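ugh ok fine here u go
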Amino acid sequence: MKIADIPSKFNIPFAASAGAGYVRQIPQASQSGIQVGAASLTDGFPAATFQSTASGGKPPFGEDLNGILKQITQWSQWQNAGATVQYDATFATAIGGYPAGTVLGSYPAGVLWVSLVDDNLTNPDTGGSGWAQIPAGASGYGVDTGSQNALVVNVANPPPSLYDGLRVLFRASYANTGAATLNWGGLGVRSLVAVGSNLEAGVIVVGGIYDAVYVASLAAWALIGQTDGQLTVPNATTNGSAVNLSQLNSAVSTEVTNRNAAITAAKAYGSMGSPGAISIPLQNGQTYIRQWGYVIVPGPTPVTVNFGTAFPNAVLGANATGTLVNNGVYIANLTQNYITLDNDSGSVDVGAYWEAWGY
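structure:
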């Protein structure tokens, strides 16, 4: 079909000027036994109207024909005008609930509701479940007219009440210095939170535009977007996640404590002359290991030293220093489990200090 195919609209319903004796509202209940030949929504035109008068039949009533066509075209005219209907508990019960996709107007007017579920009997105007708001006009945006830490945003055509998932935008006129509240659309003062907690100072700044959603379980507005101000970041739980300052400070403090403990442990060994090792926990869950020792390397024969602690993932490096002026010791082999030292000074035995590190 094409837009040009639109039929003529009903400026008036059928039989609009028919007198009371020429049109009647078609009842829902059957008229059988009440008035022979009378139409109803249950029976339509009854069987008697399909029989000849010679056989005892009854002609249809002209007022019934006018009545049903008028009722139909009244609704056609309403729809031609683009009008919606409001929640009707009696009608909802009669049809077993509104189907998914139903669009209702609010009372008072200003908001459209769409049903998200079938068989929906709840009233969206009173916070019934299974409905989502379609804002009427630009009612979701407003400018703060409140005060510091107490935002007030007045908008055109707010919904009758707050509901879970209501999303709004506002421009701030004051910077917050701590916990803040928002009264949006005159629907009541509620806490304004970020990541489930009260705001810290500097999250709201003058002129910033903020995106918030109402969370019924918190009875609060939750910030989900902003153009200015400090960004509130939750604790990171997976690789690639942002880290907030508190979590970073905690991690750095733990790392410094571990490193200080490792340095203290290393000093306790006195010198590299005594075999030793230190282990430092890392933030990624691994453990950094550094170990060392002293060994005599005979002139003609390599010496293999098994590590006191094998490197579980990888050995990253090692070095060895001989006691001779020209060193005389080199690393012949290095694995996660051992280091092999060799002597290039001929037949002279050489003392060697070694160390290796990895994780």
